[in-house]
Amino acid sequence: MTRDDPAQTPESPEPDRLREDQATLEPVRQVLREAGFWAYGTVDESNRWSIAVDDELGRADVRIGHDGFQIELRASSPGLYAEEEAPWRHQARTRLARMQIPRIARGFLDSHQSAFWDDTIEGVTVTETVEMPFQRTGDIPAFVRSRLPQIEELVTRIEQQLG
Questions:
Q1: Which whole-number Å values give the CA distances from 22 to 12, 19, 61, 76, 150, in the listed order?
Q2: What is the dihedral of CA 29, 140, 69, 150, to 10 degrees?
Q3: Cα–Cα distance between 60 and 147 in angstroms, integer?
């Protein structure tokens, strides 16, 4: 079975594939830790091996992509309307944010970026997904460190548009 085989469902990944991806991603985990990030290996929501990085500015997940390492960066701003005392007003503002964010995002984001209302944190989340060649493992920490503040800035700009 190949990696692109449709018979291989996310619910039942091949153990060999997970082990192979884990071995391939171990150098990524090591360089991220050496750069001061808290980086750890985990199986993601699609049952793929991933190196996760949690930072005060956001989160990064590194996986095996089509032609290199797929890096997904994420920044969030929790509790945008937490101080809203009237429950009906809080609910209305949240509903309006869900409708406005895709429209606002079209004006602020590139095609490899997305924004959405995150119900779990009750705030705006922006993600960016890029691919980096396998031979650039050592560049991943600097890339993550440089991009997370920029993604956080996008979150702030979207929140400002929400008023």
A1: 16, 5, 13, 27, 29
A2: 120
A3: 10
How far, CA to CA in Å, does 87 sit from each of 6, 37, 79, 103? Answer: 45, 39, 14, 25
> In angstroms, rounded to a whole number, what is the distance separating the alpha carbons of residues 139 and 74?
18
Tell me whether residue 141 is exposed, middle or buried, using C-beta atoms within 10 angstroms of its C-beta: 0 to 12, 13 to 18, 19 or more. buried
CB 59 within 8 A of CB 52: yes
Residue 26 carries which side chain, given as an amino acid letter?
Answer: E
Give tens-digit pLDDT for 10-35: 554 577 888 999 999 999 999 999 99
Closest CA to 117 of 155, 88, 152, 73: 155
| pLDDT at residue number 1 | 38
The answer for 36, left when phi > 0, alpha when psi is -120 to 50, beta otherwise, is left
